[in-house]
Amino acid sequence: MRTWTVHLRRNATPALVREGFSWGAFFFGWIWLLAHRAWIAAALWLAGTIVVIVLTPAAARPLVGVAIAVLQGLFGNDLRRWSLERRGFALAHVVAARDSEGALVRLLDRRPDLAETFAR
């Protein structure tokens, strides 16, 4: 079972964010953040990565690049949550399920009033 956080905003579809390591963030970094509409987090992450890589000696760059990718994988979903909060979403529930569809079913079982947000 995986754990998902549910973020709600009035008149918007609920956002589900999985807890734990994100392989998408590990492999694609700031592009993954852009794909999840975390614009500010993506810009800050890209700028920080460029600064760290430029200031790192050439021999250590591969190791630093891997470390940055691991950090992105570890904190990518947290950056998504931060971005959702900045856009007015509030953490409303924590749901355990095998996948995002199962998490959505469990959410709608608890909160049937949210089903109308999907009718639009």
Task: Provide keyphrases for this structure.
three-stranded antiparallel beta sheet, alpha+beta, 120 residues, 55% helix
Topology:
Blueprint: E1 2-8, E2 15-18, H1 23-28, H2 30-35, H3 39-55, H4 61-86, E3 90-97, H5 100-110
Antiparallel strand pairs: 1-2, 1-3
Characterise this structure.
- The protein is α+β, with helices and mostly antiparallel strands.
- It has one domain.
- Helix content is 55%, strand content 16%.
- The chain is built from five helices and three strands.
- The chain has a three-stranded antiparallel sheet, sandwiched between helices.
- Helix 3 (39-55) runs antiparallel to helix 4.
- The protein is elongated and about 55 Å long.
- Would you tell me the overall average pLDDT? 92
Classify the beta-strand content into a percent band.
15-25%
Largest sheet geometry: 3 strands, antiparallel
Overall number of structural domains: 1
Helix content: 55-70%
Shape: elongated
Structural class: alpha+beta
Contiguous low-pLDDT stretches (5 residues minimum) are none
The SSE string, one letter per element, is EEHHHHEH
Q: How far do the termini sit from each other?
A: 30 Å
Radius of gyration: 17 Å
Strand order across the biggest sheet?
A: 2-1-3
DSSP, total strands: 3
Q: Count of DSSP helices? A: 5
